[in-house]
Amino acid sequence: MRGRSAIRKVTKPVAATASSLWGMTPGHASLEGQVRRSLEGLTAVTLQPAMNSVNLAKVQGKLGVSTLAEARELDLSAVDKALPRLRTLYTFGALAEGSVSAVVVTGAEVASAVTTGRTLAVTVGAIAVDTATSIAIMGRIVGLIAAHYGYDVCEPDEEVFALGVISVGTATTPAAKIAALASLSRLAQQIMRRATWAQLNRNLMVQLIDQVFKALGFRLTKRRLGQAVPVLGIALNGGMSAQMANSAFASARDVYRLRFLTDKYALDPATWVSSAPSVDIEDAVRDDVLGLVLDDFLGLPVEDDDGDESP
């Protein structure tokens, strides 16, 4: 419980900051629409296999039943007790994965003494892997929880329901994560190409870092900015990944507990289904990652500026 409380304290402010930055990004609505239209393949290569990776026989043995249908006849308290206490583990795993992806995109430190940064292939690959991994983690979480409450997400109808559970529980969208990593990559490229402070200050992340430094009583220099960018990347992308996993676990548990009670006691599902947001997960996890990061490497007008003046 202490670990979960600590996770909430870390991920909630990060998620709020990320959402604020995302909302302030020009054209973010259009960009998110592009994301939703382009990453459909990830559901087939990562999400669905992750949901189907749960060992149903092991779950049935743990519950003491021979079929998942029998699990729905158990007392809710018995099922709740059998549910693995893996929320913290999955959340920290997502945090670590998101942090590594941020370091891959920006480097351990962004130095202005060189003129080239991460290659296009490395950046695109890191963003794609980060998005795919985050989606896979959510799929595994939902598949595991569904099985414990007596539902097999391998069945077509149950798969559709599980996709809805993921979409409802995902407060941070894959689009926002991709945009955050792309923005970090763009900023790292600008620093390495010795952009002027006027150019750097147009980046919202630079403004955020500058505010933090001023609050701490320090003067932001380009060297310090280069050191701060990877740290911000770890906090931002790692925190967003952790928030997605934590939210997916909580939402899946709550929804399947409600579904369990609805089916067991023949309640009217319309009383709670009708109020649930209608979001298609296959529309929520798509994007041409290449299109988001090409500007980081192509056609970036940067003036030489070796000075280290503050912004």
TrEMBL record:
Source species, domain of life: Bacteria
Protein name, per record: EcsC family protein
Organism of provenance: Rudaeicoccus suwonensis
